[in-house]
Amino acid sequence: MHYSTFVKDSKITLSKCLLDKSLGDTEMVEFKVVVNNTKDGKSHNIVVSGHHANSLIGKKINDEVDGIFVSLPGYKLQITGGTNKDGFPMRADLPGTIRRKLLLSKGLGYKPKEDGKRKKKSLRGNTINPDIVQINMKVIKHSSKPIEDLIKTEKKEDGDKKEEK
Predict the structure, then answer these.
(1) Is residue 46 domain-resident?
(2) DSSP 8-state secondary structure symbol assigned to residue 68
(3) Closest by Cα among 107, 131, 124, 134 to 35
(4) Which domain holds residue 55?
């Protein structure tokens, strides 16, 4: 009887641990988002973490995202690509989140030096998951405030928080 109680308790503990891991309590996601301003051609690097980063998980290439997720309220952004932690690029025509080896003759991920040359290259699927490190986006709809002003105010707030600690 004691043994069965122990087994029940260990199953409960094990299932609790698995549940905590599946909910993501153990690890927070952080993305480096590169936003391309289509008006002036400049790119801006923004670090996104916390619940804003978690809301980007599951989005695909060419999906439209509200700018509030990357600290740009009033902007509308489109996901154009990204790279995973090992540096493999995301490809729009490869479904899912996994990494695959594809035979490429040209295009994203491979630029041949000779005509007709093909090579197997590792590429990432088109869906964002926690293994993605960098996400590339472009501005579709602009706001009244320029991106530079919104990024400067965000950096000032971060600097004030560091000084308080």
Answers:
(1) yes
(2) G
(3) 134
(4) 26-150
pLDDT on residue 108: 84
Q: Are 128 and 59 in contact (CB under 8 A)?
A: yes
User: What's the pLDDT at 42?
Assistant: 93
Query: In 144-164, which positions are buried (b, 16+ CB within 10 angstroms) versus exposed (e)?
Result: eeebeebbeeeeeeeeeeeee
State the residue for tokens 């400067």: 152
Q: Say if 128 falls within a structural domain.
A: yes
Whether 165 maps to a domain, the answer reads: no
Q: Nearest to residue 37, comparing CAs of 64, 77, 70?
A: 77
Q: Which two tokens stand for residue 13?
A: 């503990």
Amino acid 157: pLDDT: 64
Q: Running along the chain, 165 residues long, what does each successive block of 10 average in pLDDT?
A: 42 39 60 94 93 94 94 95 95 93 90 93 95 96 90 68 53
Q: Does 19 reside within a domain?
A: no
Number of domains in the chain: 1
| Nearest alpha-carbon partner for 52 in 75, 33, 37 | 33
| Degrees, nearest 5: CA angle 95-97-98 | 95
